[in-house]
């Protein structure tokens, strides 16, 4: 049994948060919950030009909607600048870091020379202190960057919870800049200080961070820390096999909420987007936490499947209480300028429509016909309301005015009239639909008429006979 688990989700608020991003939060949250640990939210907002309050709020909203609650935070890196500068000062004092006066132009020229020689472009350690060797006099008026004294020999080794054992030679790593010339700390350095201060035990994140890991491990060890267990999740691909991103069709978490996906469907879908528990396809939040482990995280890229997500959402719609769905449908109807009066109970409409819908928005779209006056065209009426059907409709109206108002009674009367006039169901049901709700396609006609109510139905159907 793992004890004292501390995980974190550390997004950058530089754009909307999509399913690939929030998956890392879900897995980190589930692992902490599984082991009665601590889940921390950290906002990595050091990119001042691109970070926005709107993007930060979208992170909070998306996590709250999905029920991914955090125990500590949110911590903001920009509010920890003094702590980072303190550590930089400490590293300079201990010889773990040094001042580098190489200008951007000089570094660019160096890299061009290296590429021309067929070498990997990298900083060459010009200003790195060397035993028994004096450094050049710093150029006047140049503010230095601070670089980490990366080990020159050996390898960085870690057992990745997803990818297995990974070894990177220190020869492949140059001396990372940990503070810019204006004194602001860099991303990789801030991450290390945060993980060390927050005592993070497990880092579950996308494999786009894989190249950062050996650098972060070296800095962390230099500061006397023990590296956490890393698990780098393979990239989520779109349906065309490209990396899921804003440019490649990724939609924000808020888009799925606004389109009428249920949070439990999204959570279930995300859980299976890179992790599996046998053949289980559908499971609750509680089951997911109970089952979740790092051993069954997928090693290959997962592919987003919109049809699979819709299938899951449809399943959860069917299982969801009608009153809850009605509360979600109502604001969507309002945006459609529909006044859902109490004459037709919205709970009843939802109950009728949810089994045939993929999203809450589809329910709202199909519910409109119950709250607006039908307006079939004269051409449609002429097409479907033939003389024989008109006689049957008159008999149907007469019967509807006398029967108990139940779906069963309506259905029975419909059958009696069809047999009496030797008609098939569509021949009578189609004009009744058009006259009652103005649509050719609806759920079962008896259920539709029952919801509309006797008075409304009779009033609308009699228009055709006047």
TrEMBL record:
Catalytic reaction annotation: tRNA(Glu) + L-glutamate + ATP = L-glutamyl-tRNA(Glu) + AMP + diphosphate
Residue stretches making up the Glutamyl/glutaminyl-tRNA synthetase class Ib catalytic domain: 5-311
Domain Aminoacyl-tRNA synthetase class I anticodon-binding: 324-465
GO molecular function, one term: ATP binding
Binding site residues for ATP: 246
Gene Ontology biological process terms from the UniProt entry: glutamyl-tRNA aminoacylation
NCBIfam families documented for this protein: gltX_bact
PANTHER family: GLUTAMATE--TRNA LIGASE, GLUTAMATE--TRNA LIGASE, MITOCHONDRIAL-RELATED
The protein, known as: Glutamate--tRNA ligase
Species: Candidatus Vallotiella hemipterorum
Name of the gene encoding the protein in the UniProt record: gltX
